[in-house]
Amino acid sequence: MQIRTQWKRMVFFLLALTILPAGCDSKGGAGGPAPDFSLKDTSGNTITLKDLRGKYVIIDFWATWCPPCLMSIPELVTLHGKYREKDLVVLGISLDDPDKVNTGALNRFKEQYRIGYTILRANEKVVQDYSGADGMPIPTIFFVDREGRIVEKLVGFVPGRVEKSVKRLLG
Hints:
Elements: H1 2-19, E1 38-40, E2 46-48, E3 56-62, H2 67-83, E4 88-94, H3 103-112, E5 118-121, H4 124-131, E6 140-144, E7 150-155, H5 161-170
């Protein structure tokens, strides 16, 4: 019985290694100015990217139903705590349907996962601005420098990859 359980875990792990780097789709690239946005957080406050100029920003497009997104959250929570004094801001942009996951549910989710960074609600414009006509694969993380330029884009989840990118971003 124990061997069977270990075998299942190994198969799951190998499967995860092939699926997670791709996320729910795959598309790469970065460059150019980060499109500005004005979105509401889960407390009703309006956050704009332009107001964060002068800081380093991680923008994480994710959803509560996406397993690779859920696996990436603990790393983002850790990085938020570790680097916020070095002017790193983490923004999670939820792609959840507001009719299925209301603000109260997002706040409960935020508490459950101990998310200390800001969670925003996506709108059609921000998704279009950051993904184009092809749609948004998730998780997708954009790294924005102090001048508001996208310097890197990661699609999917690979443990430790986000911190490597943060270290490059912070120089």
